[in-house]
Amino acid sequence: MKDIIVKGVKYEGIEIELPKTTLLIIKGKKGFIMCGALNVDVYNTPNMLERNVICANVRGVRTFDDMLNANIYDLSNGMKALGAYKGMRVDEALVYIS
Q: For position 56, which CATH number holds?
């Protein structure tokens, strides 16, 4: 785990090395942003909607710096409701998960 500090706010960087890939997650107090290896669609299914999970994912990243500079590829309905949108830069979207 790694502390990621953006605009004075601390987030938790979670890195899981797997065979031939690495999972990356930036976790805040209310939600998380994950790499493209993980799927947002599961959080928008009828069984999960009541949980109102606040999350998004990005594609084509290999490091936390890559993630911070990437644009959101997909996001949960819970994160959309807060004002985040596809194409938004992750470093700007962090406010929605803090």
A: 3.30.1980.10
